Amino acid sequence: MASTTNTSSMKMKILCLTLCSLVLFCSAFTSKDYSEALEKSILFFEGQRSGKLPSNQRASWRGNSGLSDGSSYHVDLVGGYYDAGDNVKFGLPMAFTTTLLAWSVIEFGSSMHDQLGNAKAAVKWSTDYLLKAATATPDTLYVQVANPNTDHSCWERPEDMDTPRNVYKVSAQNPGSEVAAETAAALAAASIVFKESDPSYSTKLLHTAMKVFDFADRHRGSYSDSLSSVVCPFYCSYSGYNDELLWGASWIHRASENSSYLAYIQSNGHILGADNDDYSFSWDDKRAGTKVLLSKSFLEKNAEGFQIYKAHSDNYICSLIPGTSSFQAQYTPGGLLYKGSSSNLQYVTSTAFLLLAYANYLSSSGGAATCGGSKVTAENLITQAKKQVDYILGDNPAKMSYMVGFGEKYPQHIHHRGSSVPSIHAHPGRIACNDGFQYLNSGSPNPNVLVGAIVGGPDSGDKFADDRNNYQQFEPATYINAPFVGALAFLVGNPTTK
Q1: Which residues are catalytic?
Q2: I need a surface site. Which of 97, 236, 248, 456 has the fewest CB within 10 A?
Q3: All domains of the chain, ordered by start, with CATH?
Q4: Residue limits of the Glycoside hydrolase family domain (predicted)?
């Protein structure tokens, strides 16, 4: 009898181990989980809105803010997004955010289902602002509202801002090619998003993109030189402006199919960085993203002169895939791509998006990435991207979701003024500049949950301490979320990819 019992017990253990291994092999998340994360990743942008909020505002703890932005300079710069946890409107990361949101809709909008409208609204909230910034004055682009040095001396919710709302611009005399070309890219990408649903708006976006790109190209120079005291070190353009010029031209070419932009890319590509491989993609450096974007023309249309972009895209992709001869990326022990100690998840979300966009292009052409003597398939890229997405959502050593409001365990003390200070509904009286620091230094969870916000993320050893003062790990940003919207949309339709 004992022998029979032991045999049965052993069979149960084997069955349990088999089931456990199957669970580990299968996706950590379902299509429903990815759908929830997608909805929340888009909702986050409502918490970052500046200006007069609409009647359908869902992040109800927020109120109107920045309603006089630009007025002292006789321009209307109301609207747009606060980029992160402060109350500054920085043009370069806002434009990049917009480009990536638009690209997410272009590539994966068909998988967004009932969230497509919200995603397009998130794009339009930014493009409405960027249009004003680009058309207020001829040969001028307004690129920032508020002095960050002054803004950062206060800890106050945007509804109470009493620091000066200085306005900064680039012009022929004080150029800013990187911010202007990124703005052109954003407007051009968005014109594709609205081409069918709002043709007149789409046309306006594209025509403005062309004008802004022409301005960026004719008056070459870095805004880090023209506006160094207010953009550096916050959003200094360390990569220069050549990458943005090629990126901007690429997006206008895709949106317009105008042969002059194709000629520009073919004539200037090698000068503007097409021959240089870089292994990160961010608000500052667009080289990897441009090559993946341009590779589509070669893969799907066999366009002459675009083979180089396929080759460089392969180099970028191969650098990320363990086991290839070109592998050079760093991953944490828990499997997270690691590029830097400050806001590392911005590189993770942008990389995951590029992996999936490139996988899409490869799938449509029946191709693969060439890594030395081996081939990497679209399925390999999807697997790698999915690991990064799942890590962010909670499949990691800490069992922590790095998206606020998703899962049972997520950051409670994010570095964000509006989220950490009581809302105007809970505390209607003004909370002055210095009075807000008590909330920065408080050990209590943020009273306003900034649903969908993805924070900077864990360190190189997968460690993460819930500390509001640690902005490197705890500050959310629009450019972290924007590419994640597209990655999640893909996974909504492909949840069980191994």
Answers
A1: 415, 466, 475
A2: 236
A3: 27-54+62-493 (1.50.10.10)
A4: 34-488
